Amino acid sequence: MTGTNGRAVIAKRADDGDPDTEEIRDLARAAGYTIAGEVTQTRTEDPALCLGEGKVSELAALVAAEGATTVVFDNRLGPYQTYNLGTKLPEGVEVVDRFKLILDIFGQRAQTKKAQLQVELAELRYELPRAEAKASLAKRDERPGFMGLGEYDESRERDIKARISRIGDELERIEQTEADRREQRRQSGFDLVALAGYTNAGKSTLLRRLATDLDIDENEGLHPDLDATAESEDRLFTTLGTTTRRATFDRRDVLVTDTVGFISDLPHWLVESFRSTLSEVYRADLVLLVVDVSDPIEEIREKLVTCHDTLYERNEAPIVTVLNKADLVDEAELRTKREALSALAPTPVVVSAATGENVDALRDRIDDELPEWRRERLVVPMTDDTMSLVSWVHDHAHVGDVDYGNEVTIDFEARPAIVEQARAKARELSAAPAE
Question: In whole angstroms, what is the distance from residue 259 CA to residue 280 CA?
Answer without folding.
Answer: 7
